[in-house]
Design a protein that fits this description.
Helix content is 71%, strand content 1%. It is mainly alpha-helical. The protein has one domain (78-368): Farnesyl Diphosphate Synthase, CATH 1.10.600.10.
């Protein structure tokens, strides 16, 4: 096993030779980080070692390492930018079709305002990528992916309300209530949640009814009073309290943010026909991914301007909210985010390397994002 680890490290280095170790913008071609290359190669290396005794002779070990080295040259990069742009385009088209302009026109314009605004579409992409990872099709996951974005939009709209986070900007535009008023924002949010479940169940094709019921139940649980809502409530209750510790902070982030990520991945996997083992691995992946995403969000809130973020920068600090930089500092927060990213990727080593590449690249993207 020690020899195997050395081989993997060498291959990971080979796959990333010449790749600058810096944050990547959304417009660049994302090459595998050394960590991602290692994760991609590990499953094939393990399969090899399970079928062939590890050689004790050092010369033989070098020969086997060269074999892996040649295999590593077959695919050393995944063009995540192209993948992301194509998927976002598909999701936006599906969202546009799901919420057409109809009577009452003003209200449907309000529904479309936040839903169709520019966004990273992280949850829809995760839903589709998880479905494809286990052998499903984009078309199968798309209604659920749209439903996830409808629920996310509702949460962002309500989060920005004066009674909640009281934020004026979202995704580079005026917050929903600043344009349509608080009363319409509340009603729009209700409508989007109802539409999310209606669209998911009515538009999904080729999925067994029992699987659909299970997926709907999973989504409802993770956004409900024991999931995302619980995180939001504790976030409001703990704001400004000096005696709140890391345990409470992690609870808030795991529920307020990570539960949405988990819902997207698990629902996508279920619709794609995942086994229980695959669901368990994707659950662990998404929980680490989701917490890492929020830790990075905390860091960006204190290091980026409102113009860079597309929302009100420094809002958490101004409101005296619990964040990782506030509790453990920026450097340790970055270390923790990197640790969570690594733990997330480790859950994917048993899957087909090409099908896992989008999720691995998404973890890199989320870790290095600048807004």
């Amino acid at each position: 096993m020690k020899m195997l680890k050395g081989v993997i490290r060498n291959l990971a280095t080979l796959c990333t030779t010449g790749t600058p170790n810096r944050a990547r913008s959304a417009g660049t071609k994302l090459l595998f980080s050394e960590e991602t290359a290692e994760a991609l190669l590990l499953s094939k290396a393990r399969a090899f070692c399970n079928s062939t005794d590890l050689p004790k002779n050092e010369a033989e070990a070098i020969n086997h390492e060269n074999t892996f080295r040649e295999a590593g040259k077959i695919r050393t990069s995944f063009d995540f930018t192209s993948y992301m742009l194509q998927k976002i385009k598909s999701v936006n088209q599906a969202l546009d079709a799901a919420v057409p302009i109809r009577e009452p026109i003003k209200f449907h314009e309000a529904m479309r305002y936040s839903l169709l605004s520019e966004g990273k579409r992280v949850c829809p992409l995760l839903c589709i990528a998880a479905c494809e990872l286990v052998g499903g099709q984009e078309s199968t996951a798309m209604p659920a992916a749209c439903g996830m974005e409808m629920i996310i939009s509702m949460c962002l709209m309500h989060d920005d309300l004066p009674s909640m986070d009281n934020s004026d900007l979202r995704r580079g535009k005026l917050s929903h209530h600043k344009v349509f008023g608080e009363n319409v924002t509340v009603l729009t949010g209700y409508s989007l949640v109802a539409l999310a479940f209606e669209h998911m169940t009515a538009a999904t094709k080729g999925v067994h009814p029992k699987t659909m019921v299970r997926a709907v139940g999973e989504l409802a649980r993770l956004i409900g009073p024991e999931g995302a809502v619980a995180g939001q409530v504790l976030d409001l209750l703990c704001g400004g309290k000096s005696d709140t510790g890391l345990e409470e902070l992690e609870y808030i982030h795991r529920h307020k943010t990570a539960d949405f990520i988990e819902a997207a991945a698990i629902v996508g996997a279920m619709l794609g026909g995942a086994s229980e083992e695959e669901i368990d691995r994707l659950r662990k992946f998404s929980q680490c991914f989701g917490l890492m995403y929020q830790v990075v969000d905390d860091i960006l809130d204190v290091t980026k301007s409102s113009e860079q973020l597309g929302k009100t920068g420094g809002k958490d600090s101004f409101d005296n909210k619990l964040t990782y930089p506030k509790m453990i500092g920026i450097d340790k927060s970055k270390e923790y985010a990197q640790k969570l990213s690594k733990e997330a990727k480790e859950q994917l080593v048993v899957f087909d390397t090409e099908k896992a590449a989008p999720l691995l690249a998404m973890a890199d993207f989320a870790l290095h994002r600048q807004k």
